[in-house]
Amino acid sequence: MFPKNFYWGASTSAHQVEGGLTNNWSKWELKHSKEASEHYKNNRPHWYKMSEENYKDACHPDNYISGIACDSYNQYKEDVKVLKELGLNAYRFSVDWSRIEPKKGEFSEEGIQYYKKLVKELRKNNIEPFLTCWHWPIPLWLEEEGGLESKNIVKYFKRYVEFLVKNLGEDVKYWMTINEPIVISTASYLISNWPPQKRSIFTFNKITFGKLVDMHKEAYKVIKEYDANLQLGIAKNNSYEESYNNNPINKLITRVHRYFNNFRYLGLVHNHLDYIGLNFYFHNKIGIKGVRNDNDKVNDMGWWMKPKSIYYVIKEVWDRYHLPICITENGVADREDKYREWWLDKTMEALEMSLKEGVDLRGYMHWSLLDNFEWDSGYWPRFGLAARDRKIKDSGWYYKKLVEKYR
Ligand code: BGC
Predict the structure, then answer these.
(1) Cα 305 to middle of ligand 1, angstroms
(2) Among the atoms of ligand 1, which is closest to the Cα of residue 368?
(3) Which of 112, 133, 348, 397 is the most exposed place for a label (fewest CB within 10 A)?
(4) Can you list the domains of the chain with their CATH numbers?
């Protein structure tokens, strides 16, 4: 079922793998690590079904500091080697804004060189780069001006993307502007467990459906003006959402939630997209009491595992927009590597179903290439096909076999 030129890949993001970064997240981690570890010590979260080993790591403050991460800044060639060993032909990575523009308006030659070298290495190995311009961290100078709340954020983002496309546009064809706009604004301005930990539905709304939309559109124009043939997308996290039961109120709540979570943002930007990047992790049952999942099988993060539901998520988006789709993230936190092969099998079945129904599906990128820094949870969750030391896991080899079978 899979087309010959299908992209089989894996994903990472700069802050989670590169190491040695100074941005709003690295600053926040230093302040937050002790508190986070105390939290786990005192309230072992029963819903995490956390193994002893996970718990031990989660109780250590160092777990919450990204530090050198996977040291990809120095070891990017090793990353490409893992991709090659896995037989993959695509790699999704992101550029860290603070590495490129450490001071306002001053662009770093050293910073951009790193990404040029990475892209060159990928090209040398026939691996297609998929570049995300912004996967969440903010340079310190911009944080001081209010981060996403800054009145100049759109202008700054446009200038940053302009620099990226001028430097990398010749060698990178596939671009994504923003990773998961709803996730970053919800965590930062609604649930407020991520920096800057504010809570305001008004700010949330203004940022999500205002600034993050304008940032995307401006970046689209800049990239297309540079070269109309470049392919521009977004990485959008969509969940499959169903009503907890047949109660009409629960059904209504689900419809509204699904609209805001899956479609409102896409509806505002779909005329400025060549393809839609979809990140899929969640199947949620929703009702008046919030999320009420069966949780018969959960991953290490306590997330209900329903891999096949990616089919519905793909179909919903396809039926609405009829734009090419690429799965830009999908995976499972699984320290013992006991679910990932099953997850991959079920996912492939769902992708085949979508292809059979005529969806223009162009690629699948597993999250993640490596175990890495999982934001406010730090290092204990392990999503990698390979470990941080780049040793490929059994599930990584399994993915390789699947790719060979489907290619
Ligand atoms: C994010 C990744 C993250 C992954 C697993 C996605 O929402 O884009 O950065 O590591 O989910 O939680």
Answers:
(1) 15
(2) 10
(3) 397
(4) 7-406 (3.20.20.80)
